[in-house]
Each structure stands twice: as C-alpha cells, then as structure tokens.
C-alpha cells in the first residue's frame, strides 16, 4: 500500500473515531501513530515520531501565551468586571426598544477584549443581562438568544484563544491575527446591534412585555469602566506597538488583572485558587489537543496527503474565493457535532497548505476560519454557547429549544458577516496593511 493511500485511510479513520465519540486528541494521536507505523513498518519509529512531535508542539515559547491569556480572562470574569461593564453601558441604552440587547452586545465586545473565551462571556452575561432584559419586558427567547449570539465576540475580538490556536497550528504571527480580528469583530458587533435596533422598531411587542421590578443598575460608578478599558489598552496596545510580544502581553495582562481584582477586593485567596485551578484545567485540555494536532499534521505531511490535495484543488480551478466558501461551509457543518478547537485541529493542518498555494493571506484565512467555526457555537445539536446559557439559567425554566430559537438570527447574521469577510479581505487585513 502506498503512502498516499495510508494517509487517506488515516483521515477516514480519524473521522470515524471522532464521529464514534472518541476524544478528538486521542483520535488524532492514536490513528496518526498507526498511520506512521504503517508508513515505516516499524513500531519503534512510530513511537519516537509521536514522542518527538508531542514534545516539540508545546516546547515553543509562543505556547506560553495560552495559559497567560486564560488566566487573565478568568481573573476578569471572577472579579465581576463584566457585570459592571453591562450596568454602565445599559444606562445609556435604555432610551430605545432593544436597548438592553444592544448594551449586551456592546458589553460582550468590551468584555471580549480582555477575556478571549466565548463560553466565559456566555456564562457571565447569562447571569447579568438576561434577568435585567426580562425584567424590562424583553421576551425571554430574545434575551437568551442575544446573550448566546453576542458571546461569540469573545473568540473574535482579540485576545482570542482560537486565534492563538490558529497561530500555533500555522506558525503565524499572533499579533497580526489579533489585529486582523478587530475589523470582523467590530463589524459583527455592529450587525448585531443594528438587528436588535431594527427588531425593536418593527416588532416592539417583543420588548414591551410585562415589566417587573428590576432594570439596569443606576448605582454602579462609571469609573469602573476604566480598569476594563485600561487593561485592554495596555495588553493590545503593547502588542500592536511592538512593546510586548504576545506572550509578554499575556503575562502583563494576567498580572494586572489579578492585581486589579485584589485591589478592588473582588477576589480573595479562595477565588485566586479557583482561578488557578480552572486555568490549569483549560491549559491542560488545550495542550492535549495541540499535541494530538501536531502528531496528526506531521503524519499528514509524511504521507504526502496535503501536497496531493493541494494539487487537486489547484487543478480543479476552484480559485481562492471558491475554496474559502467551500472550506467555510464544511467547517460550519462540522460545528453541528464538534467543538471549536477540535474543528480547527482537524481542518487547518490539511487546508493551510492549500491556501498558501492559492495565495490566500494567512490572516484572511485565519479570520474566515474562526468566523466559520464560531457559527457552530449557535447551531444544533452541539451549540456550546447555547448549552452554557441554558445550563446557567436552567433553574429559571429556560429550555435548549428556546435558546436555539433566539440565537438563530445571530447565526444567520454571522453567516452574512463571514460572506463579507471572504469577499472583502480588507475587513480582516486592512489594519495590518496587506
């Protein structure tokens, strides 16, 4: 059996293993090990191959950016700064129907600039924004859908854990990807805000339900926005000006977030321990996935599959635009059954060489990938943000169907923004001068 056939059979084996419910990292590493064994005919070489690939994948200096940004995001989440951000923004948007929904989107955009994790945003604003929107008369499905939909900004507006993961998989610049995420992130936030404003104008009954006691908190000092904006400014400004590397920026941001949280007396020793444990859990999970992906990508390269697929795509005449649309469609479909990180780990090592041959900018490809992946957070049956919102509000009687219905328009809006980013690369690459 030739190398290409073994490579393609390995791809099929990985797909079967994942669909059968095997953990993605185990499927990638296990099948790749068998593939290398078949390619070399020697188990010892396959073991050495796996060990070397696994060690190299997490020994890089840039990998340190993962736990540092996770630590910063969790510290900010634990400190309650998301709640303060929403309370302050909500005061200025109560003058129109759908205003609290717009405040939720804007708060998520600000919160995304210091967290980088969508599920953290979904959990925080489920507790903070949904009760106030419902108390103000917003239909509950709209309220929960708004939180689930706008939570995706956490993985698009930098710093973003998915963009960091993409940079590791493609050996590209984290700083360039962060800068590239600004345009699509702001465009998506604007599109969400316009949708809610138009909905409030033409379907006011969705926002004029029975009022209960509650509403936006008028007691939160506006000055509490300064720590959030200052933290985002220091971290992202340091990266964009070249004063920090992304890894150094993560360290500065994590330290600043912890200092702020302790200084404001928002967390104590028990809270700090909880943050440290959660950071370890998330980092270990991401590390395990990256090791599996590294073994998988090296096995693919060894078998010659990426070169074979690249030749076929180039010869087909599909072109850069056609490939991006096809890739986005496949990724969005995979989002119905896999989580975001797993989709990237499976698809990017195979697709990235094709984009290089077709002349597609790596930042453009990265943002298209993240947007397509994020649509899966809102689509059934495995919409992770939807599940987080429902789990957080289960005691309030919120059902999965209710959240999925409310989030559906946001998924469609994301598809529209994704189309715009594919057709107009400058939305992603304009700020980096490409």
TrEMBL record:
Superkingdom of origin: Bacteria
Keyword Transcription: no
Main location: membrane
Gene Ontology annotations for the cellular component aspect, listed alphabetically: plasma membrane
Cellular compartment(s): Cell inner membrane
Membrane protein topology class: Multi-pass membrane protein
Stored Pfam families: DctM
Alphabetical UniProt keywords: Cell inner membrane, Cell membrane, Membrane, Transmembrane, Transmembrane helix, Transport
Keyword Metal-binding tagged: no
Entry function: Part of the tripartite ATP-independent periplasmic (TRAP) transport system.
PANTHER family in UniProt: C4-DICARBOXYLATE TRAP TRANSPORTER LARGE PERMEASE PROTEIN DCTM (PTHR33362:SF5), SIALIC ACID TRAP TRANSPORTER PERMEASE PROTEIN SIAT-RELATED (PTHR33362)
Protein name (Swiss-Prot/TrEMBL): TrapT family, dctM subunit, C4-dicarboxylate transport
Organism annotation: Pseudooceanicola batsensis (strain ATCC BAA-863 / DSM 15984 / KCTC 12145 / HTCC2597) (Oceanicola batsensis)
């Amino acid at each position: 059996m030739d190398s290409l056939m073994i490579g393609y059979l390995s791809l099929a084996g990985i797909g079967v293993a994942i669909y059968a419910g095997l953990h993605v990292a185990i499927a990638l590493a296990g099948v790749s090990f068998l593939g290398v064994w078949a390619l070399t005919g020697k188990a010892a070489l396959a073991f050495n191959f796996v060990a070397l690939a696994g060690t190299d994948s997490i020994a890089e200096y840039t990998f340190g950016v993962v736990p540092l940004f996770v630590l910063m995001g969790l510290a900010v989440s634990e400190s309650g700064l998301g709640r303060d951000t929403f309370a302050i923004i909500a005061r200025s948007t109560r003058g129109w129907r759908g205003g609290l929904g717009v405040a939720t989107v804007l708060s998520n955009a600000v919160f995304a600039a210091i967290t980088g994790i969508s599920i953290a945003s979904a959990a925080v604003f489920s507790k903070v924004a949904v009760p106030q929107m419902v108390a103000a008369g917003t239909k509950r499905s709209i309220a929960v859908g708004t939180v689930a939909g706008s939570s995706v900004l956490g993985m698009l507006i930098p710093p973003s854990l998915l963009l960091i993961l993409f940079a590791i998989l493609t050996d590209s610049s984290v700083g360039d990807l962060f800068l590239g995420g600004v345009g699509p992130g702001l465009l998506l936030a604007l599109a969400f805000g316009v949708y809610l404003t138009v909905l409030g104008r033409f379907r006011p009954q969705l926002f004029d339900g029975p009022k209960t006691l509650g509403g936006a908190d008028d007691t939160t000092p506006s000055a509490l926005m300064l720590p959030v904006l200052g933290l985002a400014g220091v971290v992202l400004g340091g990266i964009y000006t070249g004063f920090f590397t992304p890894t150094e920026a993560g360290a500065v941001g994590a330290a600043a977030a912890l200092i702020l949280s302790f200084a404001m007396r928002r967390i104590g020793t028990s809270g700090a321990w909880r943050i440290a444990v959660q950071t370890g859990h998330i980092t270990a999970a991401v590390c395990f996935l990256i090791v599996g992906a590294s073994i998988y990508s090296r096995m693919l390269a060894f078998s010659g599959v990426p070169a074979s697929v690249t030749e076929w795509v180039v010869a087909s005449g599909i072109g850069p635009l056609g490939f991006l649309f096809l890739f986005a469609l496949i990724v969005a479909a995979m989002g119905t059954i896999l989580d975001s990180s797993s989709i990237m780990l499976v698809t990017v090592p195979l697709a990235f060489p094709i984009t290089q041959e077709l002349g597609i900018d790596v930042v453009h490809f990265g943002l298209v990938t993240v947007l397509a992946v994020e649509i899966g957070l809102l689509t059934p049956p495995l919409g992770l943000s939807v599940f987080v919102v429902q789990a957080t509000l289960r005691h309030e009687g919120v059902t999965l169907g209710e959240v999925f219905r409310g989030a559906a328009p946001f998924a469609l809006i994301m598809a529209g923004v994704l189309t715009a980013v594919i057709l107009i690369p400058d939305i992603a690459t304009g700020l980096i001068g490409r």
